Each structure stands twice: as structure tokens, then as C-alpha cells.
């Protein structure tokens, strides 16, 4: 792979739900270590784009290239291995397993990849320290605040050392101060591991943590880097 | 706000007399600040001198308000350039941004594009402030936050305007 070229690139993505064209020829590309904000009005197709890029949703048409491999040419097992090994995820809420403690939640992706419990939890704790929630290790998600829960989710998303972090409105349910803290920790942590971040947000103050932005409108993308 | 560009933009849909230009301006943009005739004449003679408009006819009776002006090709280019150039992010942009959005719609240009371009320019400054905040002390952080919230407010207005473009398009072309 050309190191200066894109890590993940999509062309001509189409996705229709019933009569709704969620994606209508969307394009996207991100380089290693880059933070790209995906902006646009509600219902414009931002989440659908993120789900397609991450191999969660299969587009009706179009190509998605990850490090020279075409996502649609992979079988389910290969795509799921990619999601577990190379990708990390943060959503607005609801991603932590309520029955597990915070450290077990953070360790979960490593456990699913076959790591031993003690090793997994040691690595998990290191990540929790980096985002300053190691003191919550033995608490359950229901016992921590929204901001703390999102920081636990940041730790969990990065614990496997992903190359791409997909964040869909990661601060959407937080107040300003907690949102800022989460964005600072998330982007610092991602930059320290050179992970690329696809950051879906409609908030400009959140997008200001990105290197550049694209705008999604009616299922199509406008790359603002090359707009002027 | 640039009166020259605004009058030029109004001329794009067809030639108008001086009095007609003033009326159109006041109706669409002059809510609390109607133009003086003097402003119209001085602006139009500057535009004439710069080749951005030409005199298309003169009604009987003389008087500068009786002159009919038409936009030139150079004038159209000038309006396009003005609309495509984002405003430097700073306080009290509302009237300029409003004028640009309305003129874009009146002249059949994409207002959504204008809004995206302006957002991009705002974000450029917001990234600098966010970076400064990361490394600054508490006072720096508070000052940067103040600026960031104001820039965000501009953008939220722009976004709302974008969402209302359809309605606006129907109103301004009615
Ligand atoms: N699973 C789905 N089933 C039906 N319609 C969907 C589904 N996912 C998204 N849509 C529709 O597709 C459009 C784009 O949705 P989405 O990608 O979630 O937008 P955004 O994240 O920008 O708000 C919307 O009209 C939405 O209602
Ligand atoms: Mg969404």
C-alpha cells in the first residue's frame, strides 16, 4: 500500500431503504492518522455512510477499499475479523454491556479476539488510565455518569489498537464540558496510536477537533478540502 | 455589507431603473435601514466607471433615477466571486450572510454551497482556537471558549437557514 494514499476509500455508494435513498453516490476517503468530521443535517445519510465504511451495512452499489482490499469481496467471517481487529467503534450511547463491570467491558474486544482474561484486563486498565477512568474499573455502566461512560467507551474502542475509529455522535448525549473532555481524550488517544477517526457530528465545536470535514447532503458527500 | 454587490446581484435578473433598484433593495434588505437616493447614485456611478453595469436606456424627464441600468458580463463575474468567497469569521456578520443567501437564491445559485463554504471558513478558525485551548491555561481556555461559542452560533444560524432554503426560495422569488 502507498503510505501517503488513503487507508479507507469509498466510491459511488448507494443504499436504499424502501423508498428512501439513504446514500446516493457517496464518496469518502481517509488517510492513516487523519481525523475527518462527517457533517450534515439529520437524515442526510451520515450514519449509513459510517455503517457502510465499517462493513456493518452492505451498500446496494459502490466500492469500499480498505488497505487495497475490497470489502464486498470479503466473506462475513473476514469482514467480522476486520471489524474486531482493525476497527474501533463509539456510538452516542448504549454500547456498554450493563451486566459487565467497566474493566470487563473495556477488555471485551480483546477477549473476543482470544486474549486471556488477565492479559486483557491489564491492557484494559492501561487504556482506562489514559482516559482517566481507571478508578471506575469495578463499577457497572449503570453506576457511572454519562461522561464517564463515554470515556469507558473510548477506552474500549481503542483497546485492540484499531487503525480506524468510527465515532457516531460520540458527544451527542453529553453536556458541553463532558463533551469537550471526551473529544480531547478521544483525539489525543487516537493521535498517539496514529489511528484514523471517522467522526460523525452535527456540532461545529466537536468538528473543530478534526483535521478536515466533509458534508453529507441527500446521500451525497461534499469534500470541503477540495471545494475552494 | 457591500451595497455595490447587492445592487449588482439585484440587476442580474434583468435591467432596472434607479428608483426600482432602491425599492427592491429596501424591500429585501433594507428592513431598518432604507437606502438614500444619494447612495444609489454614487454606487451606480462607481459601478458604471468600473464597467460592471451599463446604461441601458433613459426615461423621459431626465434625473438619474430615470436611468435604466443593466449588468455587464464583468458584473456577473464580480457577483459570482463575491458569493463564492466566504466572509472572514467575525461578529455581526448576519446582515452580510443574509444578503448573500437571498441573492444566491434570487440569481439561481446554490445557497447550500455558499453555506458549506462559510462553515468551512468558520471551522478553520475554530480549529485554531481549539488547538490553542488544548495547550493554554485556564484564562486562554475561557477566552477561546467564548469565541468558539459565538462562531458556533453563526453556524447554527447558517444551518437553520439551509434547512429553510426551500421556503426562502419560494418567498424571494414570489
Ligand atoms: N435501517 C433503516 N431502515 C429504514 N430507513 C433507514 C434505515 N437507516 C436509515 N434510514 C433512513 O435513511 C436516511 C438516512 O439516515 P441516516 O444515515 O441515519 O442519517 P443521519 O445519520 O445523517 O441522520 C433517513 O431518511 C433514515 O430514515
Ligand atoms: Mg445518525
From TrEMBL, chain A:
SMART domains: AAA. GO terms for molecular function: ATP binding; ATP hydrolysis activity; transmembrane transporter activity. InterPro entries: AAA+_ATPase (IPR003593), ABC_transporter-like_ATP-bd (IPR003439), ABC_transpr_LolD-like (IPR015854), MacB-like_ATP-bd (IPR017911), P-loop_NTPase (IPR027417). Keywords: ATP-binding, Nucleotide-binding, Transport. The keyword Nucleotide-binding applies. GO terms for cellular component: plasma membrane. Residues 8-228 form the ABC transporter domain. It comes from the Bacteria. PANTHER family: ABC TRANSPORTER RELATED, IMPORT ATP-BINDING PROTEIN. This is Putative ABC transport system ATP-binding protein. It comes from Streptomyces wuyuanensis.
TrEMBL record, chain B:
InterPro entries: Tscrpt_reg_PadR_N, WH-like_DNA-bd_sf, WH_DNA-bd_sf. It comes from Streptomyces wuyuanensis. Residues 7-78 form the Transcription regulator PadR N-terminal domain. The lineage of its organism: Bacteria, Bacillati, Actinomycetota, Actinomycetes, Kitasatosporales. Gene3D superfamilies: Winged helix-like DNA-binding domain superfamily/Winged helix DNA-binding domain. PANTHER family: NEGATIVE TRANSCRIPTION REGULATOR PADR, TRANSCRIPTIONAL REGULATOR YQJI. This is Transcriptional regulator, PadR family. Pfam families: PadR.
Amino acid at each position: 500500500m502507498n503510505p501517503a494514499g488513503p487507508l479507507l476509500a469509498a466510491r459511488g455508494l448507494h443504499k436504499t431503504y424502501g423508498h428512501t435513498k439513504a446514500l446516493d453516490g457517496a464518496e469518502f476517503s481517509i488517510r492513516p492518522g487523519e481525523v475527518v468530521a462527517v457533517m450534515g443535517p439529520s437524515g442526510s445519510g451520515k450514519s449509513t455512510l459510517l455503517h457502510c465504511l465499517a462493513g456493518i451495512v452492505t451498500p446496494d452499489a459502490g466500492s469500499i477499499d480498505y488497505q487495497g482490499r475490497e470489502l464486498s469481496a470479503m466473506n462475513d467471517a473476514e469482514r467480522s475479523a476486520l471489524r474486531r481487529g482493525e476497527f474501533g467503534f463509539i456510538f452516542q450511547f448504549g454500547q456498554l454491556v450493563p451486566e459487565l463491570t467497566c474493566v470487563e467491558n473495556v477488555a471485551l474486544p480483546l477477549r473476543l479476539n482470544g486474549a486471556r482474561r488477565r492479559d486483557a484486563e491489564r491492557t484494559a486498565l492501561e487504556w482506562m488510565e489514559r482516559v482517566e477512568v481507571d478508578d471506575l474499573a469495578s463499577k457497572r455502566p449503570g453506576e457511572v455518569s454519562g461522561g464517564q461512560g463515554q470515556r469507558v467507551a473510548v477506552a474500549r474502542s481503542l483497546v485492540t489498537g484499531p487503525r480506524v475509529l468510527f465515532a457516531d455522535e460520540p458527544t451527542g448525549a453529553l453536556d458541553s464540558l463532558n463533551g469537550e473532555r471526551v473529544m480531547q481524550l478521544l483525539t489525543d488517544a487516537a493521535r498517539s496510536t496514529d489511528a484514523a477517526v471517522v467522526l460523525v457530528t452535527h456540532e461545529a465545536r466537536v468538528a473543530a477537533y478534526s483535521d478536515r470535514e466533509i458534508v453529507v447532503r441527500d446521500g451525497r458527500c461534499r469534500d470541503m478540502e477540495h471545494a475552494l | 455589507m457591500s451595497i455595490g454587490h447587492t445592487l449588482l446581484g439585484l440587476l442580474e435578473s434583468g435591467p432596472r431603473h434607479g428608483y426600482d433598484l432602491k425599492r427592491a433593495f429596501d424591500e429585501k434588505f433594507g428592513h431598518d435601514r432604507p437606502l438614500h437616493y444619494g447612495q444609489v447614485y454614487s454606487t451606480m456611478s462607481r459601478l458604471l466607471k468600473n464597467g460592471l453595469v451599463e446604461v441601458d436606456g433613459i426615461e423621459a424627464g431626465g434625473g438619474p433615477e430615470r436611468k435604466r441600468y443593466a449588468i455587464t458580463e464583468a458584473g456577473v463575474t464580480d457577483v459570482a466571486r463575491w458569493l463564492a468567497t466566504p466572509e472572514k469569521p467575525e461578529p455581526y456578520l448576519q446582515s452580510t450572510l443574509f444578503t448573500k443567501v437571498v441573492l444566491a437564491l434570487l440569481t439561481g445559485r446554490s445557497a447550500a454551497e455558499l453555506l458549506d463554504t462559510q462553515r468551512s471558513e468558520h471551522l478553520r478558525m475554530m480549529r485554531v482556537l481549539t488547538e490553542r485551548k488544548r495547550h493554554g491555561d485556564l484564562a486562554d481556555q475561557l477566552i477561546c471558549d467564548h469565541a468558539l461559542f459565538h462562531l458556533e452560533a453563526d453556524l447554527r444560524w447558517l444551518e437553520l437557514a439551509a434547512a429553510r432554503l426551500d421556503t426562502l426560495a419560494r418567498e424571494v422569488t414570489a
